[in-house]
Amino acid sequence: MSKIVSFLKFIFHTSVILLIVLSLFPGSLLGFLLYGDHYQQPNLIDNPFGTSINHFISYFFISLLGLFLFSKSENFQKLALGLIILSIILEILQFIVPNRAFELYDLIGNFLGVVVAYLSVKIYLLIAKL
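Above: the chain's sequence. Below: its structure in token form.
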């Protein structure tokens, strides 16, 4: 395995851990680091959907990286399913985390981020076989 692939796998696993920490931190860790206020959620881009687009972007890029890295692995389907389950569990756990709230739109953003990444990789793999 090349050093670049190993490094990218490290980035993927680290990103998943960071995603878990950011999702389960009581309040907004990014809001605290950026604004000094753990009640304020930063937006990655200005949009009418609020922070749900942040969820989509985060899960899309992390899923895209992981699914491309493991696209030739026998664990590809398991990884896709694991990312979907993780996206659902992390949002549901926000029911019990202080200063966090379950948001249906965030759950949809999480789920769609993983599904769009999965479909993107599958389409790429189909085109690459031609």
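The first helix runs from residue 3 to 24.
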